[in-house]
Specification:
The complex is a heterodimer of chains A (261) and B (339). Chain A is α/β, with parallel strands linked by helices and 261 residues long. Chain A is built from eleven helices and ten strands.
C-alpha cells in the first residue's frame, strides 16, 4: 500500500502540542517501522500525548502524522481506526458486564463495512465467524477458558491482555500499547509478549509500546525513543539508549548519573 | 469445555416451549378475562412497547431521552389521521413509524452531541413542542377538540380483543428482535458507546452515529406504541401526551430495570396495575408513585427484574456464574503482583 518503500509504517514529523500555555510536545520526530518500537520517558514526558495525537484524541498545533504515507491528522478517530490504527489505554477500557468474548468481538465490530449487511445485522453466520475468530485470538494469549466469563470477574492483568486481544482482532497496521505491563504479573507479561512477537512478524505489524520497565523494552524493541519534557532525548538501539548519560539522568536522577560517571 | 453443555443445549428447547406457552396464553386470554381486564392488560403491553424504546436509548446507549411522550403522540395522531384518509391501518402505522424515525434522526443529530443533562432537557423540550403542535395544528389533529380513531376489527372480533391481539403480537416481535440485537453487533456497539465513551473512536465506532440510531429506534417503538394507544383511547386529545406521560415512562423503566429487556414489561405492569388500584385515592396517587420511586432508586437501583432473577435463582438453587469465578476454580490462577 505504501507509495514508496521508505514510507512504510508510522512517521511523525515536527509535532507541537500545547495545552493552554503549557507546551507538552516540542518538535517531536517519531517513526515506527514493522516490528516493536519502544517509547519511554519519565511521567509527564508526553508519551501518551503522542498516542493521543496519532489516534485523533489531541489535535497538534503543528506537524505531520502519516501511516504508510496516508495522512492521519485531521481525520476523525473512527476514520483513523479504519486506516489501521488500534490502541490500548493505561486503564483498560472494557465493558465489564458482558463476556470476555463479546468484548473481543467489539474489536471487529467497528470495522464492519455497511455494505456487509449480514454482519451489520448480526446474522447467526457472521456472529459465529466473529465468535470463532475472537476465540482463536483469545486462545493465542491463553485466555480461551475465560471467554464466557464477565470481564468484571477477571484480574487487572487479564483485563489488559483482553484489551490487547481486542485491538489485535481489528487487524491493525499500527498498534499502540500504553503501559501494557504496568500492574501485570511476570507470567502475564510473558503470555502477552510471546504471541505479540508472533503477530508482528507474521503480519508486518508496527507496534509501539510505552513502558516503564526498561528491561522489558530493551528485550523487545530494536529501536527506542526516549522523551523528556516533551522533546526527544535520543532515538536508538537499547544499548545506545541505556548508556546515554542524558537518559540515565532523566530516568534515574542526576545523582545516579554522576555516580556512574 | 469438554462434552456437551446441557444447560446451553436445553436453552433453544426451553425458548421454543416458553414461546408456545406464551402464544397460547395470549390467544386464550380474551376468553377468560372481562373486557375491562383485557383493556388493562392491553395498556400494559402498549406501555411496555413504548418503554422498550427507552430501554434501547437510555439503558443500552446511556442517553436519558425524555422525548418518548412526543413520539407516542406522533404515533397516535399519525396513524389515526392516515387511516381516516384511506390508508389501511397497518400501512398507516408503518408510515407514521418511519416518519417518527425520520424526526428522531432530525432531532438526534444535533442533540446526541449534548452531554447527559443537556440532552435530557433538549429532548424534553422536543416533547413539549410536540404537545404544542398537537393542540395548535387543528387541521391535522383536531386541536383541543381531539381526533376520533377508526377502530380496528378483525373479522367478528370486537375492537378490544382485536387490539389485544395486535398489541401482543407487535410486542412479541419487538422483544424477539431486540433480544437478538442485544446479543449481537449493534447491541455490543451501543453498550460500547455507553460504557467506553472515549475509547469508542479508537475501536472504529462513531459514537454519534450509534446514539442517533438508538434514538431513532426508540422513536419507532414509541410511535408504534402510540398508534396502538390511539386505538385504546378511541379518541385522542393533546392532553394525553403531556410531560406527565414522560414521568410515567421513566417510572416504568426505573421500576423494571432500565437496561433489562423484560424491565419494560415488569415496569409497565407495575405502573398500570398500581394506577388502577390507586384510583380511589385520587391525587395521592402521585405521592405514592413518588415514594415508590425514591424507595426503588434507594434500595433497588437495578430495578425489579434483577430482583426477580435472583429470587428465581435462589428458589431453584442455581448460583450465578460470576460468583464461582475463575480465580477460585482455576487450577492455574491468574494472579496480579500489583494492582
Amino acid at each position: 500500500m505504501a507509495a514508496e518503500g521508505q514510507e512504510q509504517g508510522l512517521r511523525c514529523r515536527g509535532l507541537d502540542v500545547a495545552f493552554g500555555g503549557n507546551s507538552v510536545l516540542r518538535q517531536i520526530d517519531f517513526d515506527a517501522r514493522p516490528g516493536f518500537t519502544g517509547l519511554i520517558g519519565p511521567n509527564g514526558a508526553g508519551k501518551t500525548t503522542i498516542f493521543n495525537v496519532i489516534t485523533g484524541y489531541v489535535r497538534p498545533q503543528g506537524g505531520d502524522v502519516t501511516l504508510d504515507g496516508v495522512d492521519l491528522l485531521g481525520k476523525r478517530r473512527s476514520a483513523i481506526a479504519h486506516t489501521g490504527v488500534a490502541r490500548t489505554f493505561q486503564t483498560p477500557k472494557l465493558i465489564t458486564e458482558i463476556s470476555v468474548l463479546e468484548n473481543v468481538m467489539l474489536g471487529m465490530d467497528g470495522h464492519r463495512r455497511l455494505r456487509d449487511w449480514r454482519s451489520v445485522l448480526g446474522t447467526p453466520g457472521r456472529e459465529r465467524t466473529a465468535r470463532r475468530e475472537a476465540l482463536a485470538a483469545l486462545g493465542e494469549f491463553g485466555l480461551a477458558r475465560y471467554a464466557d466469563q464477565p470481564v468484571s470477574s477477571l484480574s487487572l492483568g487479564s483485563q489488559k491482555l483482553i484489551e490487547v486481544v481486542r485491538a489485535l482482532v481489528s487487524k491493525p497496521r499500527l498498534l499502540l500499547l500504553d503501559e501494557p505491563a504496568a500492574g501485570v504479573s511476570v507470567d502475564e507479561v510473558k503470555r502477552m509478549t510471546e504471541p505479540l512477537m508472533r503477530w508482528t512478524t507474521e503480519n508486518g505489524l508496527c507496534l509501539v509500546i510505552i513502558e516503564h520497565d526498561l528491561e522489558l523494552v530493551s528485550q523487545l524493541c530494536p529501536t527506542i525513543t526516549v522523551l523528556d519534557f516533551g522533546r526527544v532525548l535520543v532515538t536508538g538501539g537499547p544499548r545506545e539508549v541505556t548508556s546515554n548519560p542524558e537518559v540515565i539522568s532523566a530516568y534515574l536522577g542526576a545523582s545516579f548519573a554522576a555516580e556512574r560517571a | 469445555m469438554s462434552g456437551i453443555d446441557w444447560r446451553r443445549a436445553g436453552r433453544p428447547a426451553a425458548f421454543v416451549l416458553s414461546t408456545i406457552v406464551l402464544a397460547v396464553l395470549a390467544a386464550v386470554v380474551p376468553y377468560y378475562l372481562t373486557a375491562y381486564s383485557l383493556y388493562i392488560l392491553t395498556e400494559v403491553v402498549i406501555f411496555a412497547l413504548a418503554c422498550l424504546g427507552l430501554t434501547v436509548v437510555i439503558g443500552w446507549s446511556g442517553q436519558v431521552a425524555l422525548a418518548q411522550a412526543g413520539f407516542f403522540g406522533v404515533g397516535a395522531y399519525g396513524a389515526a389521521f392516515l387511516s381516516a384518509h384511506g390508508f389501511p391501518w397497518f400501512g398507516a402505522v408503518a408510515v407514521t413509524a418511519l416518519a417518527a424515525a425520520f424526526i428522531g434522526v432530525l432531532i438526534g443529530v444535533p442533540t446526541t452531541r449534548l452531554r447527559g443533562f443537556y440532552f435530557a432537557i433538549a429532548t424534553l423540550a422536543f416533547g413539549e413542542l410536540m404537545t404544542q403542535i398537537f393542540s395548535s395544528w387543528k387541521s391535522f389533529t383536531g386541536g383541543a377538540l381531539g381526533l376520533p380513531v377508526d377502530l380496528l376489527r378483525f373479522g367478528s372480533l370486537n375492537p378490544t380483543v382485536s387490539l389485544w391481539y395486535v398489541s401482543a403480537a407487535i410486542l412479541a416481535v419487538s422483544l424477539a428482535i431486540l433480544w437478538h440485537v442485544s446479543r449481537t453487533r449493534w447491541g455490543r456497539c451501543l453498550r460500547a458507546v455507553r460504557d467506553l465513551e472515549i475509547a469508542t473512536g479508537s475501536l472504529g465506532l462513531s459514537a454519534t452515529k450509534y446514539k442517533v440510531e438508538a434514538f431513532a429506534v426508540s422513536a419507532i417503538l414509541g410511535s408504534v406504541a402510540g398508534s396502538l394507544y390511539g386505538q385504546a383511547l378511541t379518541f385522542i386529545t393533546p392532553s394525553s401526551f403531556t410531560s406527565t406521560l414522560v414521568i410515567e415512562f421513566l417510572i416504568v423503566v426505573l421500576v423494571g430495570g432500565v437496561d433489562k429487556l423484560f424491565g419494560a414489561i415488569v415496569g409497565a405492569a407495575f405502573l398500570v396495575v398500581v394506577q388502577e388500584e390507586l384510583q380511589s385515592v385520587g391525587a395521592y396517587q402521585r405521592l405514592v408513585f413518588g415514594i415508590a420511586l425514591v424507595l426503588m432508586v434507594r434500595f433497588l437501583p437495578g430495578g425489579l427484574v434483577p430482583l426477580l432473577y435472583s429470587t428465581v435463582r435462589r428458589l431453584t438453587g442455581r448460583r450465578r456464574k460470576v460468583e464461582a469465578g475463575p480465580l477460585e476454580t482455576d487450577p492455574n490462577p491468574v494472579v496480579d503482583v500489583a494492582v
